[in-house]
Amino acid sequence: MKPERKIPQAETIVRAQVARHLVLGKHMKQVQVCELMGITQPAISQYISGARGFLASKPHLSMINRSVRKLANNIKKGKLKKPLNAEIKRISERLKW
């Protein structure tokens, strides 16, 4: 597996929400999610525990959750139209810091 690259904070937050939704909401295994996302299993574990990629702002969180739910549903159904990293970047670009 490739080493993780440095990514902007917004992308980290979106990645965390995607990982959380796939593991907790769609009942996928952490190993499946890390292979799908191209990141390590410890990173997935940290996303799920809230140790990494945590966002406290309610307005941002609700927008992210809507987009992430739709993305996770498409992933689970095998209907992802673009590479996952491109979708994560698209969602993160909508955040205003």
User: Total number of β-strand segments?
Assistant: 0
> Structural class from helices and strands?
mainly alpha
Please write the string of helix (H) and strand (E) elements: HHHHH
Q: Give the end-to-end Cα distance, rounded to a whole number of Å.
A: 31 Å
Mean pLDDT: 85
Residue share in helix: 55-70%
**Beta fraction:** under 5%
User: Number of domains in the coordinates?
Assistant: 1
Query: What gyration radius follows from the Cα positions, in whole Å?
Result: 12 Å
Q: Summarize the biggest pleated sheet.
A: none
Shape: globular
Tally of helical runs = 5
Q: List unreliable stretches of 5+ residues.
A: none
Report a brief summary of the structure:
The protein contains five helices and no strands.
Description of the structure:
The mean pLDDT is 85. The longest helix is centred in the C-terminal third of the chain and has 20 residues, at 58-77. With 97 residues, the protein is an all-alpha fold. The protein is built from five helices and no strands. The radius of gyration is 12 Å and the shape is globular.
